[in-house]
Design brief:
This protein has 404 residues and is α/β, with parallel strands linked by helices. The chain folds into two domains: 91 residues, Urease, subunit C, domain 1, CATH 2.30.40.10; 297 residues, Alpha-Beta Barrel (TIM Barrel). It has ten helices and 25 strands. Helix 5 crosses helix 6.
């Protein structure tokens, strides 16, 4: 019989407040939540008791835009890569993540999707996968960033319908809405209950309004590779950024590493969009969780060589960022230090909000009775010491004296 686990003497982070108490886990689920005054340890003598010594107990971090980490990239197309990335990010509090591809060949894309199908049949000691995010290849060449220009193209119905019909693991797709065929693409995604996101785009506000009407609801890495106010023949046009602010029900992803979005922009987004439409992501590439100074964005045999400096990955000529090297704990620290945001709201941005976007909020994203036991323990510096996924401890740095 599997023992229940009681976390106690903890700062429990709920959706709207933090209080001192405990959480009881039974199997894969959260069974009960207690205030300190209601915890008599003698009642829990048959449980595994974990004394958190006033560390925080938070819902697990959900990262819906991840390319790699721990020296691996999902575009490596191997089960080993999937497992190692999931394990690497779990060390920093990520309990669920969405593997994200890059603009590539159809063959490479299929290879990655096939690896995802196989790894889903295994139990791994790391973050759980929530489906695959295809980032590209339907992008504006002028906003390609670090995406490989060899493979950028307009939406091709024969191509995307074949992939979606074969792989139900595709749960979101990012594209530029101004491209020929992009509105029809968005309609098709909505018909298949796949999240349509706007990315790598030179659209103007009017393009985004049309995209919103057909089902686009998410903005991929807000501000990055995305148009703002532009001038055409002396006339000013609002861009995608302004549309993200003006259309209330757009969720916006933020690469919260403190580099992609500096302090004033983090505070502006928070002021305008508010905490319930902000989703923190790492956009992490292969070098996340390592000390590498040089790395590869994408697969080893077809990727792009990048530099890692100033806490971010860059193209070798330093003309653009090439993904972040952040882990989820860094996002929380950044929002605390630069965003001037209360901790419970930051945790919503990295747990409940992404769970809602990915349509799993009934099971994940907050500490509530009956939800999945996806939990993370960290101190007041956001140093992670324990990660639990579906009731299984997959990472543990607590001292033995804290566990009875």
């Amino acid at each position: 019989m599997i023992k229940e686990t009681l976390f106690y003497n903890a700062g429990i982070i709920l959706k709207d407040r933090i209080f001192s108490g405990g959480v009881l886990v039974e199997g894969t689920k959260i069974k009960a939540i207690y205030e300190d005054k209601d915890i008599d340890l003698q009642r829990f003598g048959d449980c595994i008791l974990i004394d958190l010594q006033q560390k925080y107990l938070s819902p697990g971090f959900i990262d819906i835009h991840v390319h790699g980490g721990g020296g691996y990239d999902f575009m490596d197309g191997t089960e080993e890569a999937f497992e190692q990335i999931a394990t690497a990010h779990a060390r920093y509090g990520t309990t669920s993540l969405v593997p994200t591809t890059l603009t590539t060949t159809q063959e490479r894309l299929v290879e990655t999707l096939e690896s995802y199908e196989r790894i889903q049949k295994k139990q791994i000691d790391g973050a759980q996968f929530l489906g695959v995010h295809l980032e590209g290849p339907y992008f504006a060449m002028s906003q390609r960033g670090a995406q490989d220009p060899r493979y950028i193209r307009n939406p091709d119905p024969a191509e995307y319908t074949a992939l979606i019909e074969k792989y139900d693991s595709i749960v979101r797709w990012s594209a530029a809405p101004e491209l020929e065929g992009a509105l029809e693409f968005g309609q098709y995604l909505r018909s298949k209950d796949i999240i349509a996101a706007i990315a790598h785009t030179d659209a103007v506000y009017e393009d985004v309004v049309k995209a919103h009407e057909v089902g686009y609801r998410l903005m991929t890495h807000f501000y990055s590779a995305m148009s703002g106010v532009t001038r055409r023949n002396a006339f000013r046009y609002a861009g995608v950024v302004e549309a993200g602010y003006l259309i209330d029900d757009f969720d916006v992803e933020l690469i919260g590493d403190g580099i992609h979005l500096p302090e004033p922009l983090l505070q502006l987004i928070y002021k305008v969009k508010g905490p319930d439409r902000m989703v923190l992501i790492t956009d992490a590439m292969r070098a996340a969780g390592t000390n590498d100074e040089r790395s590869i964005l994408g697969s080893y045999d077809d990727g792009i060589e990048v530099l890692v400096e100033d806490g971010v990955a860059k193209l070798q000529d330093r003309t653009a960022f090439a993904g972040s090297v952040a882990t989820a704990d860094r996002l929380v620290r950044t929002m605390l230090g630069l965003g001037n945001v209360p901790l419970e709201e930051i945790i919503r941005m990295i747990s409940l909000n992404p769970a809602r976007v990915m349509k799993v909020a009934a099971q994940k994203g907050s500490i509530e009775e009956g939800k999945d036991a996806d939990l993370v323990v960290f101190d007041d510096k956001v140093n992670v010491s324990l990660t639990m996924v579906n009731g299984r401890i997959v990472y543990n740095e607590l001292v033995p004296a804290q566990i009875a």
